[in-house]
């Protein structure tokens, strides 16, 4: 059984987590920092995709106006 096979729920506060991290060796803190940066970047990238899809329906309201069709008819 690997570490990924365990599911443990530990109710820790943010301050408790920070305290635990401060006790880690420096190289482990660096590894954790890299992991968190990677996770944050993935979330930011995902948020951009969600923003795109959310914006599409709002923009479509203008795209579907008869005035828009008239403005673009010669292109």
Describe this structure in words.
The protein is mainly alpha-helical. It has a domain at 36-66. It is built from three helices and no strands. The longest helix has 38 residues, at 26-63.
What structural keywords apply?
mainly alpha, 75 residues
In short:
Helix content is 73%, strand content 0%. It is an all-alpha fold. The chain has a domain at 36-66.
- Kindly name the structural category: mainly alpha
Detail the poorly predicted runs.
none
Note the run of SSEs as H and E: HHH
Give me the count of strands: 0
Distance between the termini: 63 Å
Helix content range: over 70%
* Rg over CA atoms: 24 Å
Overall, the morphology is elongated
Individual helix count: 3
Question: Which sheet architecture does the biggest sheet show?
Answer: none
Mean pLDDT, to the nearest integer, reads: 83
**Percent range for β-strand residues:** under 5%
Q: How do the helices and strands line up, and which of them pair or pack?
A:
Blueprint: H1 14-23, H2 26-63, H3 66-72
